[in-house]
Amino acid sequence: MKFREEMKLARLVLPIVFLSTAVFAEEINEIMDADPDGTVSISNVAGSVEVQGWTRNQVEVTGDLGSNVEELIFDRDGDEIVIQVKVPRNSDSRGISSDLIVNVPEGSSLQVNAVSADIEVSDVEGELQLESVSGDVTASAHAADIELGSVSGDIEVQGDKQPIRSRMSTVSGDVDADSLAGEIYAESVSGDVSLINGSFERAALETVNGDITYHAQLLNDGRLDVETINGSVDIDFGGDVSARFDIETFNGSIRNCFGPESVKTSKYAPGRELKFTEGDGSGRVNIQTLNGSLRLCK
Q1: Burial code of 251-276, b = ≥16 C-beta within 10 A, e = fewer?
Q2: What residues form DSSP beta bridges with 291?
Q3: What spatial distance separates the first Cα and last Cα of the chain, rounded to whole Å?
Q4: DSSP bridge partners of 148
Q5: 161 with 292, same domain?
Q6: CA-CA distance, 33 to 140, in Å (whole number)?
Q7: Are 64 and 27 in contact (CB under 8 A)?
Q8: What pLDDT does residue 93 have?
Q9: Based on the domain organization, do 282 and 196 belong to the same domain?
Q10: What is the distance between the alpha carbons of residues 213 and 194, in angstroms, rounded to a whole number?
Q11: Which of 116, 120, 223, 261 has its CA 20 to 30 A from that of 252?
Q12: How far apart (Å, rounded) are the C-alpha atoms in residues 139 and 73?
């Protein structure tokens, strides 16, 4: 008897439970014609933003909106498409998390701004400006310049070795770049910076607390500037390099595969420096560390 009563109660309660959970998120599926090389601007407060390039001259938005989201703005103004998750003013974080999946023409330029959301972009060939306050930023880079930033999150970029201008910055997180080329500026306050499989005319890498890795080619007349406060530096040039080297560390060893040995800057301090020329010296390599070892090879 008791069992039958419990089953009857369950049949009454379960539909209410399913109904209540269904309103927590609203599915979206909208599409709009777009310029093949226009601009797409996306704004999302919390959740995630995933953008993919495709061959159609349309922008498609799918995903889920949080229960407390006011609306999804999806408008076109000339060659610009605007996608914005609008949330109530002075709202707390409950019920505003939204996950967006956006398909855009592959030639689009892209601007994404997020607060507490991860950003992931692939197969978009136009310029990228991606910023998140608290979230990771992941992107593939092609023939156009990129600017990626996060306050609390990692940055990861996969290039295709076409020369572009790249800028990547994070306060608390790592920066990892693979197969980029051209000019790059990468910095982290508390995190590692790593460049591999690339070729650069100009590269500037900075950390406060973190290691720096540069396993890439430095082109003729190129310039590499590396600076870290607390962290090791690992430089491994791909191919031949011609440059004047100016290296200094206050507290750390220097291993130089090119031959010349470092010397102490003072008999009263632990600092060491290394100056030499490789090849015709057409480029410049400047490296400064405060606390950390240095490895320099090719």
Answers
A1: ebebebeeeeebeeeeeeeebbebeb
A2: 230, 251
A3: 82
A4: 130, 168
A5: yes
A6: 24
A7: yes
A8: 67
A9: yes
A10: 5
A11: 223
A12: 24
Distances (CA, A) of 60 to 54, 67, 113, 114: 10, 21, 18, 19
The whole-angstrom separation of Cα 141 and Cα 121 is 9
Structure tokens at 178: 């693979």
Look at phi and psi of residue 216 and say left if phi exceeds 0, alpha if psi is from -120 to 50, else beta. Answer: beta
Tell me, letter by letter, the H, E, C secondary structure of 188-242: EEECCEEEEEEEEEEEEEEEEECCEEEEEEEEEEEEEEEEEEECCEEEECCCCCC
Q: What is the mean pLDDT of the chain?
A: 90
Number of domains in the chain: 2
Percentage of the chain exceeding pLDDT 70:
88
55, 106 contact by CB (below 8 A): yes
> Averaged over 109-135, what is the pLDDT?
97
Provide mean pLDDT across the span 159-164: 96
- Provide the pLDDT for residue 273: 87
Which residues touch 289 (CB under 8 Å, ≥6 apart)?
A: 227, 228, 229, 231, 232, 233, 248, 249, 250, 252
Residue closest to 219 by CA, chosen among 157, 273, 161: 161
Beta strands 109-122 and 128-132: pairing type? parallel
Same domain, 184 and 268: yes
Say how far residue 252 (Cα) sits from the centre of its chain: 30
Nearest to 233 by CA among 295, 177, 153: 295
pLDDT score at 262: 73
Nearest by Cα to 124 from 249, 46, 219, 38: 38
Q: In the structure, what pLDDT confidence band is assigned to residue 43 with cuts at 50, 70 and 90?
A: very high
Q: Which of 128, 155, 188 is the last residue of a domain?
A: 128
pLDDT digits (tens, 9 = 90+) for 107-120: 999 999 999 999 99
- The residue out of 66, 100, 128 marking a domain boundary is 128
* Residues 115, 240 share a domain: no
Run of H or E residues at 123: none
